[in-house]
Write a structure and sequence with these properties.
Helix content is 22%, strand content 38%. With 296 residues, it is α+β, with helices and mostly antiparallel strands. It has a seven-stranded mixed β-sheet with strand order 2-3-1-4-7-9-8. A hairpin with a 2-residue loop joins β12 and β13. α1 (12-19) packs across α2 and α2 (21-41) crosses α3. The two termini are 34 Å apart.
Length: 296
């Protein structure tokens, strides 16, 4: 039994495009080296570097969570701007606990795959984990985890109960950059949904929006498979909640998952990014597809 962490750099493709391969590679190498030290200080063992990320093994769930939170806070307290300009570095992380098979210094198994998929699913500055980890944490750390409900991770037949780590609780807003102390406000979370060249933004303070065939919907998709008011999205209990109100159902693809979560008069939380398809699977011809992204 072990705890696995995958930590990935957000937006590495644009970083390489902006800085060029040589400069970006040198920067990523320095960054992953510094992050490796933080993981090791929390009893983590870096199994391998993954280009723009790290694969780390911990004996205890509590140490893994503490390490991930320490890194996220460090990147907010002291922003790192590649090349001295542009957006600061952000990481997305996944933590899973369970059986791990180790062969010749590498690790394999369902636990490893799940941690990698959690990292893919997480948004910028986010840490996602599961019930397996939650149940092994002390109460002080459990209090930092917010349930986002059951979700299907790619390749798994059964849903996993996921949690988002609310690591910003009590976070000091003061950040230091290049030796100068500045005050920055944590950016608000918002949702963007896009279809047919149109993008709609939903802020937590906004009323719910609808998607469907009706001309007065926030996003209108004129397709026979789409109900007039097919689905709605609203901010509730600290999450963006998608509700199916249709005749034929709604297919939700989270992150890079190939398997959909199918809603039939039911709800799910939207995290990270993905696709919403109204009335059919996305493999069908001219599927009425909506892209979504939770941003902060």
């Amino acid at each position: 039994m072990a705890t696995v962490v995958f930590a990935d750099l957000v937006g590495s493709t644009s970083l390489f495009e902006r800085l060029g391969d040589e400069t970006a590679s040198r920067f990523v190498t320095q960054l992953t080296g510094a992050l490796s030290q933080v993981f090791e200080q929390h009893d983590g063992r870096v199994v391998k570097l993954l280009g723009d990320g790290l694969f780390v093994l911990f004996p205890l769930e509590s140490d893994a969570l503490a390490a991930c939170i320490a890194i996220q806070k460090r990147l907010v307290d002291k922003p790192i701007r590649p090349g001295g300009a542009g957006a600061p570095v952000q990481m997305q992380m996944g933590i899973e606990s369970g059986e791990v098979v180790e062969i010749a210094g590498d690790c394999f198994g369902d636990t490893v795959n799940s941690a990698a998929r959690l990292a893919d699913l997480a948004g910028a500055d986010q840490i996602l984990t599961t019930q397996n980890v939650y149940s092994q944490l002390p109460q002080t750390q459990q209090a930092l985890l917010k349930s986002i409900g059951p979700m299907y991770l790619r390749g798994k037949a059964e849903s996993s109960h996921l949690y988002r780590v609310e690591w910003r609780l009590g976070q000091d807003d003061e950040a230091t950059m290049m030796g100068v102390s500045i005050v920055t406000k944590a950016s608000a979370t918002w949702l963007e949904v896009s279809a047919n060249g149109e993008t709609v933004r939903l802020d937590p303070r906004d009323a719910k929006i609808s998607m469907g065939r009706a001309t007065d919907a926030a996003l209108t998709l004129n397709d026979r498979r789409v109900s007039r008011t097919h689905a709605t999205v609203e901010w509730s209990a600290g999450q963006f909640v998608l509700s199916d109100t249709s005749s034929f159902g709604t297919w939700v693809y989270l992150g890079g998952q190939t398997d959909a979560m199918i809603l039939r008069r039911t709800k799910c939380f939207l995290v990270g990014n993905g696709q919403i398809v109204l009335g059919c699977e996305r493999t069908e011809a001219d599927a009425p597809l909506i892209e979504f992204s939770v941003k902060s």
